[in-house]
């Protein structure tokens, strides 16, 4: 009897082993099928936190080795990130050791659009620990940020790594406007979340009124701790002519700038202090779709109680109409104050050719858009509209206008 039960238990154990092997074999075979990646991505959207939406289309590939995704879109609270023509490859074996190693991640187009008006208070992170180690080499052919200041970058290539202690991002190449950039950043995964980042760029700047290109070297760095509501980051940036090569002399008055700033990333007003000086700056060489300029000036911002006071002076040696990709201001001086969530433009004086424009006003940060409260006054003297836009007829404008808004109503006086 005893031997009979032993035989039954042995056959049962063997049957379970065969069944488990069959299940694992089937799972392994399915993970290698060409539709397994699409199935998992389709089901993954149902496990995301509330408010998160993940959509994919034209997915081909397997869980064992990766595949292609025609389009992947993620949305949450007004933020939409869309990736098109994604190719990803990996080896599934390291996942069994809590490691995600990709052989490649290639994206043809990545677009980021933020329309968030979320007013919920933000809690600064105390840690950014991941459950697995990560190594992702990536390339993105075209990156587009659709915001108030739209940005396009091309040829982005780099590597992201996480080793259990720190996050590391290396950018080997990136092109913006007339510049080519590279950089590296590290962030500790636990408090105090120390951040160190540096960016270097080589810019072939265009010069208004000339077909020549001016080689420039840009450097920027940021360092500090991100943990805690009172976190402060120190920023430094410098733009200067690159060393002359061959027989090409440097321009007599080259484009250059330098600045420093103290930033509180979690504060309502993040810029705590700033100081910048610049000369012969052509914005079109630094940022896509910006107008041609030749700016000299200074900007200073310093703390004042719970707010700050800012002063700015600038001259523009390449003034012109907006429709000619220029800025119509020849010079400007401004004094601004920020206090108790209110902006106060104490004075703004600008020269437009032989004319002068003066502006003053105040804007109070509203609880809702319908309750915005602001007021302003503009004075014009000898202003020629044709200097603003070539579609306007030449004339001489003198006068003033005032406007104010409260509880959604706007009143004008001209």
Sequence-ordered SSE layout with sheet pairings:
Blueprint: H1 2-31, H2 36-44, E1 53-62, E2 66-76, E3 79-90, E4 99-114, E5 133-146, E6 151-162, E7 166-176, E8 179-188, E9 194-206, E10 213-225, E11 233-241, E12 256-263, E13 271-281, H3 283-286, E14 295-304, E15 307-316, E16 331-339, E17 342-352, E18 355-364, E19 373-383, E20 397-406, E21 409-413
Distance between the terminal alpha carbons, to the nearest Å? 110 Å
Q: How many β-strand runs?
A: 21
Helix fraction?
A: 10-25%
Specify the number of helices.
3
Q: Which structural class do you get from the secondary structure elements?
A: mainly beta
Note the main sheet.
Answer: 21 strands, mixed
Could you spell the SSE succession in H and E letters?
Answer: HHEEEEEEEEEEEEEHEEEEEEEE
Describe this structure in words.
This protein has 414 residues and is mainly beta. It is built from three helices and 21 strands. It has helices at residues 2-31, 36-44, 283-286, and strands spanning 53-62, 66-76, 79-90, 99-114, 133-146, 151-162, 166-176, 179-188, 194-206, 213-225, 233-241, 256-263, 271-281, 295-304, 307-316, 331-339, 342-352, 355-364, 373-383, 397-406, 409-413. It has a 21-stranded mixed sheet. A hairpin with a 2-residue loop joins β14 and β15. The radius of gyration is 29 Å and the shape is globular. The termini are far apart. Residues 4-30 and 244-250 have low confidence and may be disordered.
């Amino acid at each position: 009897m005893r031997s009979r039960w032993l035989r039954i238990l042995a056959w049962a154990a063997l049957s379970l082993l065969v069944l488990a092997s069959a299940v694992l074999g089937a799972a392994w075979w399915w993970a290698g099928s060409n539709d397994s990646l699409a199935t998992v991505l389709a089901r993954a959207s149902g496990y995301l936190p509330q408010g998160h939406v993940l959509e994919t289309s034209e997915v081909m590939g397997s869980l064992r080795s990766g595949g292609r995704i025609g389009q992947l879109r993620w949305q949450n609270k007004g933020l939409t990130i869309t990736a098109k023509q994604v190719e990803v490859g990996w080896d599934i074996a390291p996942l069994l050791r809590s490691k995600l190693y990709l052989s490649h991640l290639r994206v043809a187009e990545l677009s980021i659009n933020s329309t968030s008006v979320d007013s919920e208070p933000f809690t600064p992170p105390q840690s950014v620990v991941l459950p697995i180690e990560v190594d992702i080499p990536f390339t993105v052919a075209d990156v587009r940020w659709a915001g108030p200041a739209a940005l396009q970058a091309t040829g982005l290539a780099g590597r992201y790594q996480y080793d259990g202690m720190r996050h590391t991002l290396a950018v080997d190449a990136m092109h913006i406007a007339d510049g080519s950039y590279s950089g590296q950043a590290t962030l500790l995964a636990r408090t105090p979340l120390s951040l160190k980042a540096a960016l270097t760029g080589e810019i072939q700047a265009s010069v208004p009124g000339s077909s020549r290109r001016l080689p420039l070297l840009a450097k920027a760095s940021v360092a500090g701790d991100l943990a805690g509501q009172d976190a402060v980051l120190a920023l430094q940036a410098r733009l200067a002519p690159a060393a002359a090569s061959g027989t090409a002399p440097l321009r007599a008055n080259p484009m250059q700038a330098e600045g420093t700033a103290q930033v509180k990333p979690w504060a309502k007003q993040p810029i705590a202090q700033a100081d910048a000086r610049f000369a012969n700056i052509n914005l079109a060489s630094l940022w896509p779709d910006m107008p041609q300029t030749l700016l000299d000036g200074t900007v200073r911002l310093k703390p004042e109680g719970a707010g700050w006071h800012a002063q700015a002076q600038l001259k523009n040696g390449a003034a012109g109409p907006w429709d000619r990709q220029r800025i119509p201001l020849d010079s400007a001086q401004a004094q601004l104050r920020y206090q108790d969530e209110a902006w106060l433009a104490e004075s703004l004086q600008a020269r437009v050719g032989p004319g002068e424009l003066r502006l003053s006003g105040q804007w109070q940060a509203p609880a809702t858009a319908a309750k915005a409260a602001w007021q302003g006054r503009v004075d014009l003297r000898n202003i020629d509209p044709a200097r603003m836009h070539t579609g306007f007829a030449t004339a001489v404008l003198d006068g003033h206008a005032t406007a104010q808004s409260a509880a959604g109503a706007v009143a004008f006086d001209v």
